[in-house]
Amino acid sequence: MTNNTSNRFNLFTKIVLLLFYLINHQHMRAAYIIFIILSILSNTTYLYCQVTESTYNTADRPIARAIPIKKEPIIDGEVMDDEIWKEITPFGDLYQVQPNFGNPASEKTEIRIAYTDETFYLSVICYDAQPDRLVVSDPRRDANLDNTDAFIFVLDTYKDGQNGFVFGTNSLGIEYDAQVDNEGQGNRNVNRQQSGTIGGFNLNWDASYRVKAQVKEYGWSAEFAIPLRTIRFQAGKDWGINFRRNIRKTNEIVYWAQMPIGITLYRLSLAGTLTGLELRSPGNLKIIPYVLGRLDKDYTSSEPKNEFTPEIGGDIKYSITPSLTLDLTYNTDFAQVEVDDQQVNLDRFNLFFPEKRPFFLENAGLFTVGSPGEVDLFFSRRIGIGDDGNIVPIIGGARLSGKLNRTNVGLLTMFTDDVDEEGIEKNNFTVARVNYEFKGRSALGAIFVNRSGLESNDDYNRTYSIDGKLGLGRKARLSGFYSKTSGSYDSINEHAFKLQADYNWDNWEMRAAYTEVGQGFNPEVGFLLRSAFRKPEGLVLYHLRPQNENSKILELRPHVSYRGYWNFDGFQETGFLHIDNHWEFKSGTEIHTGLNLTTEGLLEPFEISEGVIVEPGTYKHAEGQLVFFTNGSKPVSVNVRSVFGGSFGGMRSLNTLALQFRAGEKFNANLSYQYNKFELPGGDFTANVFQTRLTYAFKQNVLIQGLVQNNTVNNLWAFNFRFSWLQRANTGLFIVYNHNLQDNDPLNNSIIVKYTRMFDLVK
Question: Would you say 128 and 583 are in contact if contact means Cβ atoms under 8 Å apart?
């Protein structure tokens, strides 16, 4: 970093500290002025050294060729000594997106692709001058690869520029796979353990395939063998394809088909092309049965006693065509799924708990319509999970999903049993979805969602919707939906809609949208964050990249966003103006410095905590926001988030400290503590959540995992321990122990032993 840059950076640091001092002492007007000065200084300091996508031609996409072979390679991770791979010419000119945008990768990569009538093969040699410095962390399947040396690729098997399959690994040879739809947009799933998916990217999809890796003196290498019956494709067409490699010692991210700044591997419309594929349609019929025994004890009953329950069930998967699959399920069970993360509700709106159950997560993006996390027209957690979080038995069901030419089709029907003690009757849930994809990142679709009580003709709820998107070249897109509901009730304004415009190019990310939810809109098989509102929102963000390779700063991301909620009488219920700048360093450290100007309007009092009432009125406040985290590829890393300022006529401080510890490739620990303190006119209170997540891998497929949580609001301790002996596609042996305490008294505990296995009946 030059002296001028260093001096400016020191000045920025002092201004940031002054900013947070002023906010902490409630000098909000002065803090706002200081923040504007800070943003201007950061922009003028680095604007002269920016690079944009105009430095290369994004229309020039690379092409690779797959080679047909008769003899299969040995899948052991060793590429150089395999005679099959020696006969295939490699390719692999990869280019940096960070830290030095547009430069060739600092290390060489060799990629080879082959196939037989039944299997798609890929090998990669990741040369590395210092293989002893390779970073590996979590050995679990689908573990986050961002902070490890890794190789990831995406296959657009329909060549539609919208949908694809992701496969990846690291030098340990872990299995990483996912589904992409809508070019990854709408993505909410970034961590398998902490979330599910709402469109865009589905990490919980598990394919049946093989991958092996080895570390040698030249670096590391890996081999993939993906059965064609595992993925869906359209015979006789080229595929879209792209590759990403992480080189952690230099914090490099490199791509084969170059990606603009701020755009990920999942932008399939910018992928390269894979030719030479002459594939036949493989058969696919899998049976996945399970047997289970569980021992439960409910301490809240008058006479607690151990109750043993045996169960059997399973799934059948049959490919009608290579791109259309029928799934059948009976006595559907999700005993091996990790429990939900504890949350505390610090406002008056609904909490969102993501879907984690495997059956509902496959092709979940196909059934996603709405505004993710706010207005979801179909939310699969409504099936088999009661309003209080208790399990509602699923008798069984079926799903038909896939693609017919350019049309995505999906049909899901599920039957749930009654629960007498909770007054829940038997129900049928049906979802029908169709979506036609035009060229140019455009589509038009419709969805129908129905819940019908099986014991009464007057017990039903229905949701209808049309949705679409219009691509404006590669840079911009218009999208939206319009929906209506109806049911066994009288209501008005049972409508909801959203219109959105996005621009993402030349370092800019911009979005403008308007959402409206009518007073009577009631999607019982969906999710509403809040009801009856009109909401405008917008975002402007710019990626500032220093061109000086000696700069310690990788990127600055100044941005401003706004969202506001009004009711239908014109009363503002919420306003949130966010002004921020992200400081990302080449070392992996990142700092976010933000200012929030908030408005909260209440027409009725509400109880924010036990005995603490917030009175009606309009509350306008400002708050500071600071986020700090270190390089996640290091053995020890930290993440700190702090928000402090005014709230409901008083003050609040929301703080989260997370610590991640890694001991080699076997042990991982994640500890987090949320400390929330409120000082309000109606009273003071704290709301804290403690969480510890531990993983120890005896082998790559033999794991023990623990999750311990404490919620001070409910005085609840929750313990979840799982032993997994994994086999194909996340099947295998699972032993699960759950125990819950409230006010130091036991609530319930359970021990579950489950074994599930996959049988291929068509080879």
Answer: no
Rounded to whole angstroms, how far apart are CA atoms 599 and 647?
A: 9
Confidence of residue 620 (pLDDT cuts 50, 70, 90): very high
Hey, what are 742's tokens? 């409230």
Stretch 568-586: mean pLDDT: 95
- Check residue 389 and give its pLDDT: 74
Percent of the chain with pLDDT over 70: 90
| pLDDT (tens digit per residue) in 222-233 | 999 999 888 888
For 476-503, what is each residue's pLDDT tens digit? Answer: 999 999 999 999 787 889 999 999 999 9
Say if residues 120 and 276 touch (Cβ distance below 8 Å): no
Euclidean distance between the first and final Cα of the chain, in Å? 60
Distance CA 471, CA 446 (A): 18
Please check whether residue 485 is in contact with residue 523, taking contact to mean a CB–CB distance below 8 angstroms.
Answer: yes
Which of the four pLDDT bands, split at 50, 70 and 90, describes residue 58? low
| Confidence band, pLDDT 50/70/90 cuts, at residue 173 | very high
Within 8 A by CB and 6+ apart from 530, the residues are 349, 350, 374, 517, 565, 573
Q: How far apart are CA 448 and CA 383, in angstroms?
A: 16
In sequence order, what DSSP letters do the residues of 127-179 get, joined into one string? E-S-GGG------STT---TTS-EEEEEEETT-SSS-EEEEEEETT---EEEE
Helix (H) or strand (E) holding 536, with range, is strand 533-542
The conformational region for residue 7 under phi > 0 = left, psi -120 to 50 = alpha, else beta, is alpha
Q: Cα–Cα distance between 694 and 707 in angstroms, integer?
A: 7
Q: Is the dihedral of CA 172, 178, 180, 186 positive or negative?
A: negative
Distance CA 283, CA 262 (A): 40
Model confidence band, residue 409 (pLDDT cutoffs 50, 70, 90): very high
Residue 69, classified by CB atoms within 10 Å of its CB into exposed (0-12), middle (13-18) or buried (19+), is: middle
- Considering only CA atoms, which of 659, 667, 623 is closest in space to residue 642? 623
Most confident listed range (48-57, 134-143, 745-754):
745-754
* Neighbour-count burial of 182, counting CB atoms closer than 10 A to its CB (0-12 exposed, 13-18 middle, 19+ buried): buried
**Identity of the residue numbered 60:** D
Angle among Cα 192, 504, 366 to the nearest 5 degrees reads 45
pLDDT number for residue 279: 85
Task: Name the pairing type of β-strands 95-98 and 252-255.
Answer: antiparallel
- DSSP class of residue 72 equals P
Q: What is the pLDDT of residue 168?
A: 96
pLDDT digits (tens, 9 = 90+) for 115-124: 998 899 999 9
**In the chain, what are the domain boundaries?**
3-49, 53-275, 283-321+700-763, 354-531
Secondary structure of 683-734 in HEC code, one letter for each residue = EEEEEEEEEEEEEEEEECCEEEEEEEEEECCCCEEEEEEEEEEECHHHCEEE
Pairing of strands 63-65, 272-275: parallel
Look at residue 56 in the predicted model and tell me its pLDDT. 53
What is the amino acid identity at position 332?
T
Supply 365's token pair: 């993006």
Considering the four listed CATH numbers 2.60.40.1190, 1.10.150.240, 2.60.40.640, 1.10.3720.10, the one that applies to the domain covering 53-275 is 2.60.40.1190
Q: Report the half-sphere exposure of 34 (CA within 13 A, side-chain side).
A: 22
Q: Which amino acid is at 383?
A: I
Please give the DSSP secondary-structure letter assigned to residue 604.
Answer: S
- Sorted by sequence, the CB contacts under 8 Å of residue 292 that are 6+ apart come out as 310, 311, 312, 313, 333, 335, 752, 753, 754, 755
Question: Which pTM does this prediction carry?
Answer: 0.83
Q: Are 660 and 669 in contact (CB under 8 A)?
A: yes
